[in-house]
Amino acid sequence: MALNKLQELVKYQQKIASLEKELGKQRRKLLALPGKLGYKSPGDLIAALQAVAGGASGKVAGGAPRKRAKLTPEIKAKVKALVAADKTGAEISETLGISLPSVQNIKKELGLVKKRE
To answer: Is residue 65 part of a domain?
Structure first.
């Protein structure tokens, strides 16, 4: 029984060594990536990716925090009028400068959407 455990332990140690070797290869590839893409360091690459993605903290590329749309009764009335004019949710969203989910929520609040059956 002890011999079986030792053999099993040796197999796991070999597996760990194999995984560590593969991890080392992957790490070297990742460390070489910024240079291949024209950046001086991984930090420069990360900063560029965050700028493109809009940052990780709800900020747009310019660095200013996003502003929330105020859903006033006037906006709700405009949504109602645009729905009556057969505009799509995306068209309404773009016209009024509010998100598509906000348009959907307003339509639901005003009873302008059909319930699922």
So the answer is: no
Return the closest-CA partner of residue 98 out of 74, 114, 116.
74
Which SS3 state, helix, strand or coil, does residue 82 take? Answer: helix
The pLDDT tens digits of the residues spanning 98-109 come to 999 999 999 999
Contacts of 90 (CB under 8 A, 6+ apart): 100
Is 80 part of any domain? yes
Residue 78 within any structural domain of the chain: yes
Based on the fold, state whether residues 45 and 79 are members of the same structural domain.
Answer: no
Strand partners, 59: 65
Residue 48 is part of which domain span? Answer: 2-53
Q: Using pLDDT thresholds of 50, 70 and 90, give the confidence band for residue 70.
A: confident
Q: Where are the alpha helices (DSSP H) in 58-110?
A: 73-84, 89-96, 100-109
pLDDT-derived band of residue 64, with 50, 70 and 90 as boundaries? Answer: low
Tokens found for residue 35: 């240079």
